[in-house]
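Obj.: predict assembly geometry.
Materials: sequence records (below).
Method: joint structure prediction, all chains together.
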Amino acid sequence: MEDGGRASAVDGMVQHIRGLIRDRGMTVGDVLPSEGELAVMFDASRNTVREAFRTLKAYGVAESRQKVGAVLTDQHQTAMRDLFSFAMDISVDAFRDIQGYRRLTEMNLFDLLDGRISKDTLSEMDALNASIGKATTPEEASDLDFQFHRLMVEAAGNRTLSETYGMLKPVIRRLMLAGKSQRLALEGVVAEHADIVQALRKADRIAFVYHMNRHLDAGLEFIPTAGRGDAGSNTGMEEGR
Amino acid sequence: MEDGGRASAVDGMVQHIRGLIRDRGMTVGDVLPSEGELAVMFDASRNTVREAFRTLKAYGVAESRQKVGAVLTDQHQTAMRDLFSFAMDISVDAFRDIQGYRRLTEMNLFDLLDGRISKDTLSEMDALNASIGKATTPEEASDLDFQFHRLMVEAAGNRTLSETYGMLKPVIRRLMLAGKSQRLALEGVVAEHADIVQALRKADRIAFVYHMNRHLDAGLEFIPTAGRGDAGSNTGMEEGR
DNA sequence: CAACCTCTTATGTTGGACATATAAATCTGC
DNA sequence: GCAGATTTATATGTCCAACATAAGAGGTTG
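Observations (raw structure tokens):
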């Protein structure tokens, strides 16, 4: 009944499994029947069941451990992050907008940070910033750069904000990677970071906004204005793997 | 450290394909190499490639047609809807996450809107808001509610923001649907909207944040707090497509 | 030129095979 | 009798080979 005509076997299997979850009222932690059981249960190949599971895993709903089976999880947050970062890969030219988005959030951080951020955190930011200057590869530099900003965002103590920043992580890191190969630009970044930290120390709102704005603008310099100027030669990527 | 760990072959394949998309600068409409080609290209089984494709399909990034192959698509909206509709089967607090995301974005909108939003847009928002009060069905009301918020988000002129909001549309609308059946709540929404528009007219940052916060909080009132409350009200999501 | 037919190609699905991880059962030494 | 080591059983992870099916490509015929 639920099979809508041209639905593929694995789509049907997804629905079947979903129905199973509903009917049994399963929640996080419960384990689904094994692939083999589901295969015979709904008369399909184990491979079909596996492909269906892939969908569940992509949605962050299930996660399979060997010997145990597939257990229901609550990872939709992560799934959302992946979905977004994937979407960004496709709909290109989003870089400028992303930077605008960062401006939206990070430049407004001051009110949250002021009086809340600890001296330790500020020192930590200093330390991170220093190591950026010593980074040997662009990847390392952009990674540290991201850590610097993330630290600041985390210090705001807003869970949603932190999660969103994590969600955009791959995109932001990619954004940061641009231009990091030039020593000069790297030094500029470090200097700007220092200004930002100092503004926080002095609790100087104007200075914070000024330097943050400048910093985010500078990050845009190395982004091609439009289309696909992608050199593509340096892409070591391999974030997961 | 989150993306490292044990990488299965298909996870690796997902990354490979993703890298391919990036390196070739592929966008919507382009077709990926065939399963067989990818299999030999990255030295894996065709089945592994297929499972990787399942992930892409789940994210709404690709869609495969026979003979042609897998073409890149832009179905994130549908993917998001499915993701949440699925997550709702497991746990309810998926809604809270979204509302948190809205708080992050919409409450920070002010700086982007201030000075940029036109009088016409504000009038349009007023008109929309008025029609919410006249809506006869909860569906109509929540639809108009969404339009109201979308109009405001669009006025910010940030593409990523707009796209994100569009992606979340089905979820947000469903979120808005809750509580809309009560006349009283509906009137509250209209009043809050009016406050928000007025804050924008007066370019009053404090008022904007205050009313927006209040508004978003109110929206959460009708969402069951936790666990498997299973109010039965969420059965509306049918799988068909 | 258009309608029809065949051919080729790539996906969709299946069954079976083997490797690997791991919970559970069994065995060992004290 | 029990803690720790070892084996066993089971379910996932990956691969291969095969066939079915859909759909574009191209040729044939009226």
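Conclusions so far: Residues 34-36, 50, 64-70 of chain A lie near DNA strand D (CB under 10 Å from a C1').
To do: check interface contacts against the pulldown list.
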